């Protein structure tokens, strides 16, 4: 069992869904946890909260100066722009890259991190679909980003988790019948035969925190969706 007693963990995007579950798990494993949120209204009970907008370098630099050294950083931040190429909005496309790729690079620039960084990719990178090009390309770039950052920041370990479709709460805004149909379609489209659970992803992050011989990798937690 990974023990994070005495370690400081920052979860960017930790205000809800996968990020919040990761923050809760880190706290349960003994860590001193801070969540980085872009709106301080999202205060999750019991956590230290830091203002951090990953698309804003000044905000990242200020958060790094305020928090000081950290053992582990996780970023779940995403700003998806799911539209057909014919409808692309340049500002939204660049924000999507800021949230997933450029922002994490600037986090690496400003924070004094001693243990590991875990970023979030996603299965869309390996399953091209019309209307999801920005999501796929940004998630794919995350896999390259962790490889390059791992080399440059060593011995700090830098890895990514690439989830499949997870019932994390991020689909809760869909009408229930539509969401159920979507999850059934997801279950048919992977080898595990089910939609992902939040615990599937949290377990992968916990493993990465303790995996001292793993760096530069993207861990696919998607029920074999790429092979289905
Ligand atoms: N859930 C899935 O099925 C799935 C599948 C593949 C990949 N993933 C990836 O896994 C990660 C987490 O997924 P999730 O389901 O937890 O997604 P989510 O519900 O969309 O959560 C994303 C988190 O990032 C925060 N965030 C967005 N922009 C930010 C910014 N500029 N600065 C700081 N924080 C920001 C959000 O805060 P706000 O409340 O302020 O928006 C939210 O807390 C994402 O990167 C997602 O792309 C998820």
From TrEMBL:
Keyword Oxidoreductase carried by entry: yes
Transmembrane segments: none
UniProt key word Oxidoreductase: yes
Keywords in alphabetical order: Oxidoreductase
Xref: Gene3D superfamilies: NAD(P)-binding Rossmann-like Domain
Protein name: SDR family oxidoreductase
Domain of life: Bacteria
SUPFAM superfamilies named among the record's database cross-references: NAD(P)-binding Rossmann-fold domains
Similarity comment: Belongs to the short-chain dehydrogenases/reductases (SDR) family.
